[in-house]
Specification:
- The complex is a heterodimer of chains A (122) and B (430).
- Chain A is α+β, with helices and mostly antiparallel strands and 122 residues long.
- Helices cover 45% and strands 16% of the residues of chain A.
- Chain A is built from four helices and four strands, in the order ββαβαβαα.
- In chain A, strands 2-1-4-3 form a four-stranded mixed sheet.
- The longest helix of chain A is centred in the last third of the chain and has 20 residues.
- Chain A is globular.
- Chain B is built from ten helices and 25 strands.
- Chain B has a six-stranded mixed sheet with strand order 17-19-14-20-21-22, with helices on both faces. In chain B, strands 8-9-1-13 form a four-stranded mixed sheet.
- In chain B, a hairpin with a 2-residue loop joins β3 and β4.
- Chain B is globular, with a radius of gyration of 21 Å.
- Classes of the chains: A alpha+beta (122), B alpha/beta (430).
- Chains A and B meet through α2, α3 and α4 of A and α8 of B.
């Protein structure tokens, strides 16, 4: 399996294709949704695992490069993700003051996700 | 397995020449902590140790971990096996506990880290660690040290600090002893054949740097759901590597005193047969989530559980794991109860979780992470005062420069919405 990365984090470097998003975390979700509607399948959770990471200005998603999906459930997942993301932020902006640290963390969490994916027989 | 926790009640903490307990006061030799830790790790460039007591106008921020100081006086598995000591199964023997004292490690591995303990006022109401006598350890590392190495260093040093201080309990007078004893499945079934068999599924964030847990030193993301004897968690087998999610991260102290485990123990042999703790990682990838939740449900079925209690760690994508496990066991005829916090907005009216399942209907809420509180200016800040800006969320009107009062959401307060119920909030049934 090959991957398509969707990201607005310029620290992400990979041999896989990168679909660059010139925008916000929210724009990454929207772009991921658009690519899924073209047939790419989502491989990672669209949302983070802690409130603090919701405030990250950057986000990296991993899709399949192959267009063989998506499933109904993952499409529902990305459709719900945008509303859920906005519900957490509410009256607050992404935390641009700590942008460099969020880029670092996003990269680390992305690397962890790729290590997880490499553990499956695809 | 039989574990005896001897509680040495601590009423006060003071610095002293010698690490000891006398008349309820824990005397701490500050130099011993500093010198020992610096000898053990050449990367530490400096250490500061301060004390914070309930009621003092002290703010501790950002908190990395909280650890209960103890010493094992009988039995194998001393220290934190697999981390500070050689790997050995814990959960048996005799441990002396400095009951009421806590080691609190502080400092930023990354700038946006949060987690506050206020020792007085409104903030104190929301954290369980405003009631502990805190030995606050601030560890400095070289400029340019990677966050990864920084986290590992502070994690280890905090555990070692708890061992160093814990030695004061070795010869101290014991105030009470708690006994935790459960045999194997067959023994307990023979004793209580008619009691429902309950498994506690304890989910841990397992998604990478600052988002990890460790079982005998093994990072949780490397594990399939694994059954532990409850005594193992009560006896230092599980430690925290979670440096985000202040409100619901399970600190090492909370693992050592896991409320769900202790409450299930209370009921064991009376209303339930408590089979054990299924540590279940919350992975990042969807395939990983399907694997672990499926395996967890299968394990509960295989072990013959009649009921399952599932606690979460974090908010967001782990909500999916929570409801998937519930669905998996409920479809097999096993009842499930979920324990989770909510992100329901300032008015408490938004959808509480990011995922749902029609089977997941028995839910204990540990609180709304979005609930806003107003805290006063502190007299003393232990840690990084700039972290307060992160905590206040940066929204307009959150900070009053004149009075020093600040608004923040509960998600910034350590342990405020603890999803294992180790906190101050309670549930009201309407």
């Amino acid at each position: 399996m090959t991957y398509l990365l969707v990201t607005n984090n310029d620290e992400i470097q990979s041999d896989y294709d990168i679909h660059w998003v010139d925008g916000s975390f929210e724009d990454v979700i929207k772009e991921t949704h658009k690519l899924m509607e073209e047939g790419h399948e989502l491989l990672v959770s669209p949302l983070p695992a802690s409130i603090r990471m919701f405030y990250s200005p950057v986000r990296t998603m991993v899709l399949t490069k192959e267009k063989k999906g998506p499933s109904k459930s993952t499409l529902q997942l990305i459709e719900d993700a945008l509303g859920q993301y906005k519900a957490v932020l509410v009256n607050k902006d992404p935390d641009y003051r700590n942008l460099e640290d969020y880029k670092y963390m996003d990269k680390k969490l992305f690397n962890h996700a790729m290590a997880e994916l490499s553990g499956f027989n695809n | 397995m039989r574990l005896e926790l001897n509680k040495v009640k601590i009423e006060d903490i003071q610095f002293g020449e010698e690490m000891k307990v006398e008349n309820g006061t824990l005397y701490i030799n500050k130099d011993e902590i500093i010198n020992t830790l610096m000898e053990e790790d050449e990367n530490i460039t400096g250490i500061d140790v301060n004390l914070a007591r309930p009621g003092e106008k002290v703010r501790i921020i950002p908190v990395k971990d909280v650890i209960e100081p103890r010493v094992k006086i009988e039995g194998k598995g001393a220290g934190f096996p697999g981390v500070t000591t050689t790997t050995q199964t814990t959960g048996e023997g005799v441990v002396n506990v400095l009951d009421g004292a806590a080691i609190v490690t502080i400092g930023n591995q990354v700038g946006f880290q949060e987690g506050v303990i206020d020792m007085w006022g409104e903030g104190a109401r929301w954290t369980p660690f405003s009631k502990t006598l805190n030995i606050v350890v601030d560890i400095s590392v070289p400029e340019g040290f990677s966050p990864h190495k920084h986290e590992e260093l502070v994690r280890r040093a905090g555990l070692r600090a708890s061992e160093i201080v814990g030695e004061a309990a070795r010869e101290a007078e014991i105030d009470k002893t708690e006994v935790y004893e459960i045999g194997n499945f067959f023994e307990e079934h023979d004793k209580y054949p008619d009691l429902p068999k309950i498994i506690y599924v304890e989910m841990l964030i397992s998604q990478g740097l600052l988002h990890d847990g460790y079982i005998y030193g093994v990072v949780s993301s490397d594990l399939l759901p694994t059954l532990l004897h409850p005594n193992e968690e009560l006896d230092n087998a599980v430690i925290s590597g979670n440096c985000v999610a202040a409100c619901d991260k399970i600190t090492t102290y909370q693992h050592q005193n896991n409320s769900v485990i202790k409450d299930l123990y209370e009921l064991h042999g009376k209303e339930i047969n408590f089979l054990g703790v299924l540590i279940t990682p919350e992975l990042t990838t969807l395939e990983g989530k399907y694997r672990t939740t499926d395996f967890a449900a299968k394990a509960c079925i295989q072990y013959g559980a009649d009921g399952v209690i599932i606690s979460e760690e974090g908010y967001g994508n782990p909500d999916s794991d929570l409801v998937m496990i519930s669905r998996g066991v409920e479809q097999a005829g096993i009842k499930s109860v979920l324990i989770t916090d909510e992100c329901s907005g300032w008015d408490g009216m938004s959808q509480p979780l990011t995922d749902t399942a029609e089977e997941a209907v028995a839910v204990i809420s540990t609180g709304n992470v979005s609930h806003v509180i107003e805290v006063d200016k502190a007299d003393v800040i232990l840690g990084n005062p700039w972290a307060i800006e992160t905590m206040s969320g940066g929204w307009a009107g959150s900070y009053d420069e004149e009075t020093g009062k600040m608004k923040c959401e509960l998600n910034a307060v350590i342990g405020s919405t603890s999803e294992i119920g180790y906190h101050n909030a309670t549930v009201k049934l309407y």
